Amino acid sequence: MIKISPKSLNLYFECPLCFWLEKNRGVVRPSPYPFQLNLEVDNILKQDFDKHRQESGFHPLLESNNIPAKLFQNQTLLNEWRDNSKGLKYEHNNALLYGILDDVLDFGDGKLAPFDYKSTGEKVPDVYDKFQLQMDIYSYLLEKNGYSTPKKAVLVFYIIDKDNPFEGKLPFRKEIHIIDTDSSYVEKTFKEAVEFLKKEAPKEHSQECVFNKWLKEINV
Amino acid sequence: MSFYYNPKRTTELFDVKKKTPFRISRSKIDLFLQCPRCFYIDRRLGIARPPGFPFNLNNAVDSLLKKEFDIHRAEKSKHPLMEEYGVDAIPFEDKRMNDWRNTRSGIKYIHKPTNLLIMGGIDDIWVNPKGEIHIVDYKATSKNGEVSLDAPWQIAYKRQMEIYQWLFRKNDFNVSKIGYFVYCNGITDTKAFDKKIEFDVKVIPYEGDDSWVEGTIKELHQCLLSKDIPKMADDCDYCRYRKVAAEESYKDIKKRKKKK
């Protein structure tokens, strides 16, 4: 079965040929070593939010930013949505759209919103297009799984405070960004990407593809 | 196109006819050792490998550590880590320190036989009572158990240290064989995370051997002079991607043409 994640759709937008190669031939773009430290920050944050989830359901960060939501209370279900081998899924015509979520907020009346942790060494956090796409897809997936959404997603940025000496700790400041989500185009895009994979390979990488010139200018 | 990547560079290209020394950074020496083909394409044809994401947390740890050691540099005092690990040294004070740390300027040396300007940006220098300097490199990660230098891929860390040692020796410094890695390991079992991640910081001494550097610079120079693009390294992910991507799309187009 074809499996499509937000990252795959982002790749489809960036370069259809790279997307085609990854999904149809298993030829994946090379990437540098993953940054273990960035991955671990996500893990630590999950533990912290889980603790608050179990204690009161509220988190000081949400309260101080006046976000009228509780942490989603179903830990078992959330663990499934966080699990790389499962995730939050929607199947259509033998193709799967899925997302691996960080967290979910409960706005009451059965309304759920995606809640994502981002850690960065940037001074000013950037809400990249790929974050928007990711949140739109998560909202769509929540809807397809029978939940309603407030048409919003919450991103919490952990930004390193570089003004002080290290002294064995990495200090963060936190910034919350609430973004509007639009799930209306997701279904169409998903189907289009799946259909695209059944067609012949495009002849060239797209102009925007970071591998385009790097590949093109050197004949193998 | 992504804002931090310019795929077709027109500057910093090796030109056989040019008389001015050609700049080769420590990371390009490492690229050459990883894959001569990628190195050649980058330095002669101006097409670098697409980069990774630049705002990672490791760089942040480096810049914070620099600030911390600078306090002791100004005071000419030992850092508590030096006491803890029995390192008889203090941070080295020198006007050029900021240049050496800057990846654009760095510590430099013109290698006469090849006319290559070899350079690299260091993290730190310590000095012992005998007046010998120690090269110091900061590393950050997060893993269970103790950090070490034993994994095969960490050869890159060792080579990095040895190139810096070589560069400072060529600049007439009295360089100790012993360099130090200040290795920071993020603690992951933090019960309550609020405003910071805590680290275990370890100082790992490493005895460097820079005898390979000279020979590698000569080989790298031969590679730059070559008319043909050199062969890829067998284990180069980037060359493999380039090759397989081209083959697979070509095969698909051919197959579909036959059907028609």
Structure description:
The complex is a heterodimer of chains A (220) and B (260). Helix content of chain A is 39%, strand content 22%. In chain B, 38% of the residues lie in helices and 19% in strands. With 260 residues, chain B is of the alpha/beta class. At the A-B interface, helix 2, helix 3, strand 8 and helix 8 of A face helix 3, strand 8 and helix 8 of B.
What's the gist of this structure?
Chain A is of the alpha/beta class and 220 residues long. Chain A has 8 helices and 8 strands, in the order βααααβαββββαββαα.
Could you outline the blueprint of secondary structure elements for this entry?
The complex is a heterodimer of chains A (220) and B (260).
Chain A: E1 2-4, H1 6-14, H2 16-25, H3 36-55, H4 60-64, E2 70-71, H5 75-82, E3 88-92, E4 95-99, E5 103-106, E6 112-120, H6 129-144, E7 152-160, E8 169-180, H7 186-198, H8 212-216
Parallel strand pairs in A: 1-4, 6-7
Antiparallel strand pairs in A: 2-5, 3-4, 5-6, 7-8
Helix pairs in contact in A: 1-2, 1-6
Chain B: E1 22-25, H1 26-34, H2 36-43, H3 57-75, H4 80-84, E2 90-91, H5 97-101, E3 107-111, E4 116-120, E5 124-127, E6 133-141, H6 155-170, E7 178-186, E8 196-207, H7 213-225, H8 237-259
Parallel strand pairs in B: 1-4, 6-7
Antiparallel strand pairs in B: 2-5, 3-4, 5-6, 7-8
Helix pairs in contact in B: 1-2
What's the total count of β strands of chain A? 8
Strand order of the largest sheet of chain B: 2-5-6-7-8
Number of helices of chain A: 8
The biggest sheet of chain B, with number of strands, parallel, antiparallel or mixed sense and barrel status, is: 5 strands, mixed
Q: Please describe the biggest sheet of chain A, giving its number of strands, its sense, and whether it closes into a barrel.
A: 5 strands, mixed
Annotation, overall tally of beta strands of chain B: 8
Number of domains of chain B: 1
Instruction: Return the structural class of chain B.
Output: alpha/beta
Radius of gyration of chain B (CA) equals 22 Å
What is the beta-strand fraction of chain A? 15-25%
What is the approximate shape of chain B?
A: globular
User: Secondary-structure element sequence of chain B?
Assistant: EHHHHEHEEEEHEEHH
Overall average residue pLDDT of chain A: 91
Give helix % range of chain A: 25-40%
